[in-house]
TrEMBL record:
Protein name: AB hydrolase-1 domain-containing protein
GO molecular function, one term: catalytic activity
Domain of life: Bacteria
Domain AB hydrolase-1, first and last residues per copy: 3-225
Pfam families (alphabetical): Abhydrolase_6
Amino acid sequence: MDIVLVPGFWLDASSWDGVVPALAAAGHRVHALTLPGLESVDAPRAGIGLADHVAAVVRLVDGLEGPVVLVGHSAGGALIHAAADARPERIARTIYVDSGPLGEGESINADLPAEGDEVPLPPWDGFEEADLRDLDEELREALRARAIPEPRGVAQDPQHLHDVRRYAVPATVIACTYPSSLLQEWLDSGHPYVAELARVHDVEFVDLPTGHWPQFTKPAELAAAILAAVERTAVERTA
């Protein structure tokens, strides 16, 4: 199976380095993506918007043959949902890593402080305590050292979706910061935070208790959770 790994804000393809080997060892073709404007700290970011990041994911899907599993961390969840909207017939499963689908007209996070054309990684006190669980001082220093400013448009632009067939793509939510029991409560109560997820026909939850960056805090466990979802997908498609 082709597995496409889409990073969240401030990260490039190398952020998946702790996860890729286990997926590849299981026989899958793994494609970790560096999104436009995230090539380096010095890369130009002016004029890059959410649609450009979605288009990068779709281009990668179009260059592959057969079914594709999309994995999106954090803001990457918005991108893989939009890619499933653009290519619903090609996507075998979407896997949301401490994230979820972003609905029509919503932005990823328009409140993040921007500096010109970019959004730098905020200070740690700008995050909730749950986000930073297991992210010790060494990991925090490593994450900040590798962080690349995000193009402002990606954070602020509205999402645009077109094809309701996206709701037929099976989804796995790997719950890290919040337990799946809380997400299920939100679904049952019609909480707006999960309104788009509630429209997906087939959703499964996997709990991986840690902070917002499991690819750094629990890479082996994250790889195992992704593999299990991919393997279930393969079985379901051949049943």
